[in-house]
Amino acid sequence: EVQLVESGGGLVQAGGSLRLSCAASGFIFDDYAVAWFRQAPGKEREGVSCINNYDGKTFYTDSVKGRFTVSSDNAKNTVYLQMNTLKPEDTAIYYCAARHSLGLHYDNGSGWHRSFEYGNWGQGTQVTVSS
Question: Potential cystine with 92: which of 27, 34, 40, 131 (Cβ 3.0-4.6 Å)?
C-alpha cells in the first residue's frame, strides 16, 4: 500500500523558515517523482515543487524560486521541502504527492505541476505565516 505522510508544518513569522518532510512507503522510491502542492482557502491547489528521483531533476513554481529547496534522501525514502524567507502568501495546506517518474522524465518535466498526474497523496500539513 502506497503511503505518503507529511510533517513539519506549523506557525512561523514572515521571514522565517520551516522544513517539511514527506515520508514514503509502499513503492520503489527511486522510480517515482514526488511533488509538493499547496492549497490556500478559496484558492485552487497549485504545484510548488517537485523532485524526480529517477534523474534528480527539480522543478519550482516561480513564486518560490530562490526561497524553497526540494531534496530527497533515498536511504530514508523521504523528500524534504526547505522553505526560507516565508511570506504570508505561503500560508496553505501543503501536500506531497507521488507519480511514476518515467512519464515526467520523457516530457522533460513539463507536466510536473499538474495535480491530476499524481495518483498518490498525503493527508497534508498546515503552514501558517504571520505578518
Answer: 40
- Taking the C-alpha atoms of residue 107 and residue 6, their distance in angstroms, rounded to an integer, is 27
> Mapping DSSP to helix (H, G, I), strand (E, B) and coil, where does residue 105 land?
helix
Q: Tell me which residue of 87, 71, 88 sits closest to 20, measured CA to CA.
A: 71
* pLDDT per residue as tens digits for the range 89-98: 999 999 999 9
- The 10s digit of each residue's pLDDT in 111-130 is 999 999 999 999 999 999 99
d(CA 94, CA 90): 10
Q: In angstroms, rounded to a whole number, what is the distance separating the alpha carbons of residues 115 and 100?
A: 13
Task: Report the first-to-last Cα separation within the chain, whole angstroms.
Answer: 40
